[in-house]
Amino acid sequence: MLGLLLLVFVAGMLLLSSLNLSYSRDALSELRRQQINEVVGAGLSRINARQSALASYTITLANVGESFHEMVESGMSGRALSVVRGSLEHTLNAHLQDFEGAAGAGLWFEPGVLSETGTSYMPYFLQGNDDNALTRLDTESRFDHYRNAPWFSRTLEQEWTADPDNSGHVYWSPVYFDLNTERAVLTLASPMYDRDGNLLGMATTAWGADQIIDVVSRITVTQHSFTFLNDRNNRNLSSLSQGEDTRKEQALIDAILALDLGTDVDAARSLGEVGELTTRGLSAGNEDYELYFAATAGGMVYGAGVPRNEINAVLLPMERTNYRILVGTVSAMLILSLYLLYRIIQLIRELQASYTDELTGLPNRVRLLRDLQNHQAAALLIINLDRFNQINSLFGNVCGDHVLLAVATRLTAFSRDHNREVFRVYRLPGDEFAVLAPAMTPEVAHQLAVQVRHLVTGDRVYWQEQRLTVDVSIGIALRKNRKPEDAADQLVSQAKVAVLQARETGRHHLLYDPAVGVEENYENNLYWANRLKEAIDHDRLVPWFQPIHDNQSGRISKYECLVRMVEPDGSVISAGRFMDIANKLRLNRRITELMIEKCFACFTGRDDEFSINLSYGDITEPETVAQILSAIETSGIGDRVIFEILESDGITNYDDIRAFIEQVKPYGCRIAIDDFGTGYSNFSHLLSLNVDFIKIDGSLIRNLHEDQTAFLVTSGIVQFARSLDIQTVAEFVHNEPVQARVRELGIDFSQGEYVSMPVPAPGSAD
């Protein structure tokens, strides 16, 4: 009852306050909008004045070209024609120097006009950094006709036809990057006609984009307003403000461009006559704006956005006073009620949070363990996302969360379709989910795993219009009857073991088998440990050499040294079979020392470059580093040595890497980052390491010809390396289509089956 009375009282106060403010808001808001219209209109006038001036300059040049044509038509000799040309170019120079801010200007005549029949005369001058320094482009040798010049397709359509009625009309291009001036420019073009209406050619002027953008940046409407300018291709030409919140600015730019206020000159003018403002609403983030915009004289769209709360800012003092009275009147009655309500809600949230995953809203591991205690017989599927760490590493945690939410949505839909009480879905820590189901036979459990995998992987996951490939490994554990001594998480542990076994055996799902214990794994480790130690003792670890192809010269330019184990029967075993156990037994240092000794001995008498793989542990081992420095000094071939450092090798201190590089660089040695794109990809540290090569990981290169995501990531790595003057090497190039994409991206070197598999001696594969 007390709550109802309080509600009625507060509602009455709010009604009186709203009636009191309604009339004032309408009147003052309209006045405020009129003021904003005047400010935006004044800015539009300044922009139009500047654009009209640029157009006027262009028309002036067209008049100059027409005047000189009349002089020639009056009947001059060939020698006089050259005099006219010289005078014309002098006049063109003088005008260009008078055009403040012009990047270039020219007169592009039709073939035979001011020239011999079949030839074109097209004088075009560029304005250098020094206002008095002008450069004439050799346009006649570069273009047989001005329609082939780059500015023509940007400013006019290729099918453009002459029309004497359009004499004096100026055509505007969008902003583009001009290679001649190395700056962003826009081109204005105006046709030239003789007295009979015949087309003589085009007059063009080029202007730095800052000539217009600077005008926009100096316009301020309100404290938090912004101004913008879009060209006819609906591209934003100006920063919204000088603020530090770049994400907010980009969101505003994207929202404005999505409105497509003007894609070309005609669309821009369809907004209204030049100078007539149009108004519409815009929402970006959590803020609403009013847009005031219009077409400019140059066919662009200029406008300003004003936060709605600033339009009504004059009402804030009145509103604050009203609400202060209202709050003061009812605060005493609300305090106790709100406190009690807050405590109840807090307790409910704490209880819910202890059983719910924050990201997906699914029950968490704690809830799963509690539910397992209430099930005597049950089936549990643990779903582990494959290569999830790579997604986080390449695209960021936000993308990873997006993938997790997508999988959670699909599993939740599956649970809903099959009765939530029968199939319950849980989110486990990291990249795992669980499905708890009633007891079932192994056959039915396998069918359920197949169905769940198809559900998760059947549809692609998209992130910012990029298609991501998501696959899963599923572990299954079954329980017919729970014993009192069984741990609460026993079924979870068994399912996780099944996940690991599925990955090791290359299977998508696997049922936990109690008969397959850890003893089998121990026996396998012992077997390989004995074989490895025997190979070291009998000197049967040797280097093999994989050629690296130079994509520029088209020849083999270097070799990567790879360790191999030679069996007594002559068979050769690759490093992938024994390096894992070597690392666990701490024999990897000994293998590195053997490789250094044998590789330097092999290449001392050759001219080839060669690379040796070093782990982070090798670099931090003083004895190994001492052996490396000794081998370099003794052999004198440091300028042909490349040390490859594994980028995904769990580097904990980049200062150790830098110290090693500083020791070997004076000998001419070079540094490569191996498997780039699979580990931390710490770009800030990479910038300080002074490396010479980046070897792009094979997981990206292998599917480069058919995986668009891999192609985009690889392209970004190549651009990054090129900006730092670092050469790139593509690993695992296994066929012609992949090599074609590698060359398309401009990767410097290729390595893989397509070039050659590792060979026992350098040069034997050539």
Automatic annotation (TrEMBL):
Domain EAL: 525-766
Gene3D superfamilies: 3.30.70.270, EAL domain, PAS domain
Residues annotated as domain GGDEF: 376-515
Regions that span the bilayer: 323-342
Keywords assigned: Membrane, Transmembrane, Transmembrane helix
One Pfam family here: EAL
GO MF terms held by the record: cyclic-guanylate-specific phosphodiesterase activity
UniProt keyword annotation of Iron present: no
PANTHER family: CYCLIC DI-GMP PHOSPHODIESTERASE PDEF, OXYGEN SENSOR PROTEIN DOSP
NCBIfam families according to UniProt: GGDEF (TIGR00254)
Protein name stated in the entry: Diguanylate cyclase/phosphodiesterase (GGDEF & EAL domains) with PAS/PAC sensor(S)
Native source organism of the sequence: Marinobacter algicola DG893
